[in-house]
């Protein structure tokens, strides 16, 4: 029997109000222990207030080859960014 | 360094590259990070596995010489600091194994390669820690040399490796300081016996620390390819020079003598001239004949083998629990 | 915790508190009892922390190595607090380090359980669980101590120990209910350690004095809750409580097993070999 523990990806909320962020991975036999291990491994310096874990093989990722079609279209929509618009200095902060 | 003597293929010229390889090299040249599952030359993947794996092994074998002194640390505070530091090394090993795992090799496979001698770890950890000043010296010189290497590796081209290095560098910033702090106490406030201990440690660790950067890579084809791929950023000699220049004034402040009669400032190059370490000794240690190779490997293998029942027991429990939950679901439906 | 509402006074008034006065009348020096009791708390943490730290670099898996080091770090931190307070109450200028590094085995006041050898990883975890289950109850009660300093240390330590207990209980359950081999090992660990658990609940004159002063609960008062926790965890782990009733004792009074001498030889080596050094 292979006893290698599955790999888990760890996401930590650093402070209240922030998003969970991927911090790394670890091995654990199940989700509960993955949480405990994440607490011991990834919050040794007070880094977190909340932990998510997900088994690595459960993550569906975009294919690297589709990078163009997935992300190029939004590149052309520059008007979504506030810097697209010139506002006269006289009107003040906007 | 922690990845001394990692063998890679010789660098290819643009003409020798396939279309894919050329596109890959262009990405690296533009400073883009390569991420898992993206196309990469097989040589790049293999070199990275070897380098990151060796780096990871060095972290966990590196726990041993310092761990040696946790139970003998002279104050409660020193005990806590040392334990936290050695624990960090385990964490760094874990981060690095995780980075290697994104390249399609499992941690258990890498450990097996360590245990059967097919993968190496840094030569430095085959030297013994004989007195308490060694703990200071290891932190100051060994971590100092490691940090010098790791700082540049934060810019390495492989994303997961680079991110692991960033995290490690952030955490390691206290390691070198705690080592120097031990020596400050012993050298500036300690008894003559304590100062003698510190000098003894310096005498034993100076050359092994210089060896950590690996032999000169002036003529090494392996280094050339690794540098072209930005798996490696600086040459061994550049890093070694930087290390010596940084360390000499720190040793002077402690009142310690660096055991090298040829050490002297060279105005022209703006750095110190210094003696080469004994490379025969280095190759002996790498070949398994260092003072502690056998003990280090035995400790690792024993920990792994004695722990097999524990890892299997927990896995078996997790599977039972899964099965029970599944059964409960079916019963409920 | 005995109901001694009238001793909930400021620290400086402690010596005048009724409980302490009663004790003084019996001829026991109240502060000595308090110091002794603080050393028991501190030495338990010190010796167990030492034992657990021996695993660093040698655990069965990296994640566990890191987790166990966290437990050891917590215990070393708690040692500094308890022994620091012991030195302060004693009033002879001894620091936590002086107490840890310059007393011999007979002056150590830890229970025998914590000095038992690590054995295999299962035995280490079982020892941790049996101790944590007691430690948690003790710290819970101590948060109502008549001595504010004790209550503060207990409040801080209780948060750490709650996690220790969660982990050790969880691992005992998982390994008990794991493979045939892991179950056998855990049962064996339990059998070996069980005779060292009774001492946790045995009271003596020191305990009586601190209980009467409202500083600490009487040891026996923690037994029911400990029994409950242990019974629940063992049941889930499919482990069987050993039948033997014999219990070792003596650690709290300074009569230790041979193991402690070796621990101290390691731990105190530098301070003993280089007196007057600065570390």
Question: What's the architecture of chain C, going by CATH?
Answer: Up-down Bundle
Q: Give, in spatial order, the strands making up the sheet with the most strands of chain B.
A: 1-2
Head-to-tail CA distance between termini of chain B = 59 Å
Secondary-structure-derived class of chain C = mainly alpha
Name the chain pair whose interface involves the most residues: B-C, 50 and 53 residues
Classification by helices and strands of chain B: mainly alpha
Main beta-sheet annotation of chain C:
none
Radius of gyration of chain C: 19 Å
* Residue share in helix of chain C: 55-70%
Overall radius of gyration of chain B: 22 Å
CATH class of chain C: Mainly Alpha
Number of helices of chain B: 12
Low-confidence stretches of chain C: 1-28
Helical run tally of chain C: 12
3D architecture notes:
The complex is a heterotrimer of chains A (94), B (333) and C (279). Chain A has 94 residues and is of the alpha+beta class. Chain A is built from two helices and three strands, in the order ββαβα. Chain A has a three-stranded antiparallel beta sheet, with helices on one face. In chain A, 24% of the residues are buried. The model of chain A has no long low-confidence stretch (mean pLDDT 86). Chain B has 333 residues and is mainly α. In chain B, strands 1-2 form a two-stranded antiparallel ribbon. The longest helix of chain B has 31 residues, at 159-189. Chain B starts with 18 loop residues before the first helix and ends with a helix. The model of chain B has no long low-confidence stretch (mean pLDDT 94). Chain C has 279 residues and is an all-alpha fold. Chain C is 62% helix and 0% strand. Mean pLDDT of chain C is 92; it is low at 1-28. Chains in contact: A-B, A-C, B-C. Chains B and C meet through α2, α3, α6, α11 and α12 of B and α2, α3, α4, α7 and α8 of C.
